[in-house]
Amino acid sequence: VSLLLSSTFIKDIKHVEKILIALLISVAGNAIYGIFQITGNDFVKWGNAYNPFIGTLGNPDFAAAFMAIGITASLPLLLSKEIKVFVKILLIIIDVAGLVEIQKSQVLQGKIVLATGTFIYLIIYTKNRFTKSSIQVKVLTVFGVILGVTSALGTLQIGPLERLLYKPSVT
């Protein structure tokens, strides 16, 4: 929520870069700590009822979603011609660790956030690459709206995605 609120006050691209750097540093720290947890080498002996991957956020749902946000945020940097190869290699390492942690978390939230974020990025990328009235942008947008509405309804126990998305602890 604070990220969303702070983004409304951004007046300069330098502020966006600082927020992105802070996010990616946080994700990198969480990824490193998550590797320790997944391999059974966590230096803190947590008494949690969840699987081993809880990151620094306290539960696998939040940790996996946070890793997905970081992976999504790194996509534009990975595709940018202005970013140095060394930085891209570090991002790929962090992203691979994040993907492993999302998979090992055994929760759906990380996968949903990753798919949603990647899809939104694809729409923006396609819109910037092609003309705004191109068929690619229209098809991606319509597909995204249909998938988004169907997913939202599924979390509310309505529709074909209910079995995949509904989680009693959320409602």
What would your notes on this structure say?
With 171 residues, this protein is mainly alpha-helical. The chain is built from seven helices and no strands. Helix 2 crosses helix 4 (85-104), helix 3 packs parallel to helix 5 (109-129) and helix 5 (109-129) runs antiparallel to helix 6 (135-155). The radius of gyration is 18 Å and the shape is globular.
Question: How are the secondary structure elements laid out?
Answer:
Blueprint: H1 2-7, H2 13-38, H3 60-79, H4 85-104, H5 109-129, H6 135-155, H7 162-165
Helix pairs in contact: 2-3, 2-4, 3-4, 3-5, 5-6
Task: Write a concise keyword list for the protein shown above.
single chain; 171 residues; mainly alpha; globular
The gyration radius over C-alpha positions equals: 18 Å
Largest sheet: none
The helix fraction, in percent, is 55-70%
Number of helices: 7
Pattern of helices and strands: HHHHHHH
Mean pLDDT, to the nearest integer, reads 80
Shape assignment: globular
Classification by helices and strands: mainly alpha
